[in-house]
Specification:
The protein starts with 5 loop residues before the first strand and ends in a 15-residue tail after the last strand. The chain has ten helices and eight strands. The chain is an alpha+beta fold. The strands form three sheets. A four-stranded antiparallel sheet has the order 6-7-5-8, covered by helices on one side. Strands 1-4 form a two-stranded antiparallel ribbon. The protein has two domains: 186 residues, no CATH class; 72 residues, Alpha-Beta Plaits (2-Layer Sandwich).
Length: 315
């Protein structure tokens, strides 16, 4: 995980005055070591903060209300309710062993080691004492727990690793098949609830379903939503001015496609560009000023690859 930033500088030359050669010198690039240390520290900090938030949701709301969670944490809670003498952290650790075997086979070594660290951090944090949040209403409890744990899981997945559990499987499916992490989590949740309905009261299962939906929504929001990209198509007679504004003022690329009107047969220039969600209002205002009659289509994007505008997580 930690890449030593050493390089060998071989300056092999004749020393005429001494009659011998100079030995190779070891040059230590301290700047690269410092940069690597900061990256490791930042990612471990993200994982730790996310684990603490998830632990607050579990110990502060889910366990007191006898709710389930999603993924491996949900299995650990279900086992804990059946066997109260078994600590949640210990059960979580045991259930993660087969998942990390899969992770070793299918994910990168960097992600594996960060995830292993995250799993150990969460297993340790969940042992700690956390206050029970003073929320009496069951629906409000489910909503609050979903927000806290969803944000926590999203923060963890914004790092180069995960906290183990279902996160490992989510990242594999996202990288291989572009299935969003929240979608994978929600699917597993449904299967878990189908089993839990035979062990827990139906009311508890339904409250858990509310929690799981909110959790998956906030996972998607933190991981994908904050870096969402919009694809824009523009048809305008003043396409040259608009394309120049996109490139010079908005600092975004634009592709010009030759088109033809289906009814009129008129030759058209279609502009295609991809922008960040936060730039959309400024983009539309720019088009209105240049050509109020322009035909504009704004579409969602699943993910974008490419320098400058790409939004893929760095897993």
């Amino acid at each position: 995980m930690f890449k030593y930033a050493f390089s060998f500088e071989r300056e092999l030359h004749d020393d005429l005055s001494m009659g011998r050669k100079v030995k190779p010198r070891l040059v230590i690039k301290t700047k690269e070591i410092w940069t690597s240390s900061k990256i490791i520290g930042w990612n471990l900090a993200l994982i730790s903060i996310g684990c603490i938030l998830c632990a607050v949701a579990v110990k502060g709301i889910l366990v007191p209300k006898q709710f389930l969670a999603g993924g491996v944490t949900g299995l650990a809670l279900l086992a804990h309710y059946v066997l109260p003498s078994w600590p949640i952290g210990f059960i979580y650790f045991l259930l993660n062993i087969p998942l990390f075997v899969i992770g070793w086979l299918f994910v990168g070594r960097r992600f594996f080691w960060y995830s292993l660290a995250g799993m150990l951090i969460f297993s340790a944090v969940i042992f700690g004492p956390f206050p029970v949040l003073p929320i009496e209403d069951m629906i409000l409890s489910a909503l609050t727990a979903g927000i806290i744990s969803g944000v926590g899981s999203g923060i963890i997945l914004r790092s180069l690793g995960s906290a183990g559990g279902l996160d490992v499987l989510s990242v594999i499916l996202f990288k291989r098949f572009s299935i969003r992490p929240g979608t994978t989590v929600m699917t597993f949740h449904v299967l878990l609830l189908a089993v839990a309905v035979f062990r827990l009261p139906l009311d508890t299962v339904l409250y858990t379903l509310v929690y799981l939906y909110i959790n998956s929504y906030f996972v998607n929001l933190v991981v994908i939503g904050l870096s969402q990209r919009k694809a824009i198509m523009i048809i305008s007679s003043r396409w040259q001015e608009i394309s120049r504004e996109i490139m010079e003022k908005l600092q975004r690329g634009v592709t010009i496609v030759q088109g033809e009107g289906g009814y009129t047969g008129q030759q058209l220039h279609v502009l295609y560009s991809v922008i960040a969600l936060t730039e959309l209002s400024r983009f539309k205002e720019m088009i209105r000023k240049i050509d109020p009659q322009a035909f504009v289509v704004v579409t969602e994007t699943q993910e974008v690859m490419g320098k400058g505008i790409g939004n893929q997580p760095h897993w």
